[in-house]
Amino acid sequence: MKTITKTYQVYSFDELSEDAKNKAINDEVGFWLEVSEVSSNNEDNTPPEILKAFKKADAMQTPWFTGEYIMEYAKDIILDGCKQYEYLADGTFFLE
To answer: Taking the model in full, what pTM does it have?
Structure first.
């Protein structure tokens, strides 16, 4: 038997480069896009700002802009979400 230990350098959101922050933000928006689409019948779990973004995309018939609408209406929620996690240097979410 062999025991291998791997070491990772992890960063808080604020320590990331701008490119890495953008990746983390895009991943967080992507998370909300997936979660909100899956739970669109259960609006209780989705913040109203995110629901507003989905409703605007639907009203404008521009679903491809939903992520941008999320950033427009729920930027604070997205950034707060990003600040809860640790990341690898490239902005990839790190989970032990």
So the answer is: 0.84
